[in-house]
Design goal:
The protein is mainly β. Helix content is 13%, strand content 33%. It has one helix and nine strands; from the N terminus they run αβββββββββ.
Length: 129
C-alpha cells in the first residue's frame, strides 16, 4: 500500500472520529475546501490558494497541513485539507502565525509562512517541486 493511501485513510479515520455524535456542535474552525471565503465567521481568517506541481500545473488531492509557528498561535483542530480537482484549497484558521505545507506522497515541497488576522482573506499559493 502506498504511503499516500495510508495517510489519506488515516486522516479519514481521524476526521470521522472527530465528528462526534449526531447533532454535536463544532468546536472550532473547520476546513472548507472549495467553499466561499465569505462563510468564515468574523473572528477567523481565511487562507486560500493554488497548489502546483513542478511544471506549474494545478495539483489535485494534495494534503495542506498547517502548523502553528509560535506558542501564541492556537493549535489547528484538524490535520489537513485536500486540494480540489483544480488544485485549490480553502481553510479557516484562528488568528496567529502558521506554516503551510503541501504533502503528496514523497514529493518534495515548498512550505510558506502566513500570518492570519481576524476577517483576513489571504491567498497563499504553494508548490510541489
Amino acid at each position: 500500500m502506498r504511503l499516500s493511501s495510508v495517510l489519506v485513510a488515516g486522516f479519514a479515520l481521524v476526521a470521522a472520529a472527530a465528528c462526534g455524535p449526531a447533532g454535536a456542535q463544532p468546536r472550532g474552525p473547520a476546513p472548507v475546501s472549495g467553499a466561499s471565503a465569505s462563510t468564515a465567521p468574523p473572528t477567523w481568517g481565511t487562507v486560500s490558494g493554488l497548489v502546483t506541481d513542478g511544471a506549474g500545473r494545478p495539483a489535485s488531492g494534495v494534503l495542506i497541513v498547517p502548523a502553528a509557528a509560535d506558542p501564541d498561535t492556537p493549535a489547528v483542530p484538524e490535520l489537513a485539507v485536500l486540494t480540489d480537482s483544480a488544485g485549490r484549497y480553502t481553510w479557516r484558521l484562528s488568528p496567529g502565525r502558521y506554516t503551510l505545507a503541501p504533502h503528496q506522497g514523497n514529493r518534495p515541497y515548498t512550505a510558506k509562512a502566513v500570518t492570519v488576522t481576524p476577517r483576513a482573506q489571504l491567498e497563499v499559493n504553494l508548490s510541489l517541486t
